[in-house]
Amino acid sequence: MKTWRRSSLGLALVIAIVLVLSACGKKENNDGASSSPSASPTASQAASPEASADSKIEALKGKKIAVVMQFNQGTLSAQYLEGVKSQVEKFGGKLTVLASENDLNKMVTNLDNAINQKFDGILLDHGNADALTAGVNKALAAGIPVVAFDSGLSIEGVTSIAQNDQLLADKSLEALAKDAGGKGNIVKVWVAGFPPMESRQITYKAFQAKYPEIKEIAQFGDASKAQLDAQTQMEAVLKKYPEKGSITAVWAAWDEFAKGVTNAIKQAGRTEIKVYGIDLNDEDLALIQDPESPWVASAGADFTSIGQVQVRYLYQKLYGDKAEASVQIEPAFVSRELLPTDKKVTVADLGEYVPGWGKSEQGVTDYLTQLEQSVGK
What we know:
Belongs to the bacterial solute-binding protein 2 family. By secondary structure, this protein is an alpha/beta fold. It folds into 2 domains: 59-163 and 303-330 and 359-376, Response regulator (Rossmann fold), CATH 3.40.50.2300; 165-300, Rossmann fold (3-Layer(aba) Sandwich).
């Protein structure tokens, strides 16, 4: 009897153990089934590539963008800023302008402020590598993308946009040489210390070597109060060379300089002297169209388009694309002969007379086009 009871108890214990193990096995199988790839909710409900792209585009809306400007005076700066503002608005972003009043120290401080305020992206307008490199590296370390215009920067991860400054200089100087018959006395208005000016100087030196019978008789230029200073300096040069024919032409490496020397020449009644400039805006075009004005031609790019292009490359970076390291804006050449005589032309309609003006598609991508369309709805 005792033996049977012990056997019964042993059998019951074995059955109990088997049942427990069986239950555990079922639980493990259920757990395993719930985590198998075929049954995974994550995999079965994974977003399609199209949905993923849509979410990335949607994430671009509402970005906070800072534009840190060295210059904030003159019509070119106004046109550039208009291009930046309009493109940021089309992308659904919010723009903050940090102007530096041609003070590099203030520009460095403004850049640092933009980083500390954690903007989503930073645009730089002018400045130079010596002043900006440390701040730009700080921005990149903080994960803030940077796109610079005419800043002379060469930093990995930064897209640097510039006008083709050597081509700008070449177009204006070659026109001067052609009109002057390859000889004469000229005045150069230029200033050192700015990346675009330094690039234009390279072409000017080549021009001097190419045309040895074109002599430089005076040179000046000051970026502070540029137009007024150029007018005052040109007045002094005209007094030094009072005879008609003693000065053939003036080459002005910036339109603010060109306006100043044009005023001085007109007031002195020396309109036999021709002015060739760089950069274009509505005020410049009015002077070039005026048959009594000595300013007869200028090379330039549409600064509104430049601002738009710069914003596009910044948003490429915000999207996650590896944008180009260097972008060149191709210039146009505008002479009085190209413009109508019966109406005033503005940069807005200059494209009717100068092919390619104001219609840059640089930096445009399919997803940025979709973003514009989405914001515009």
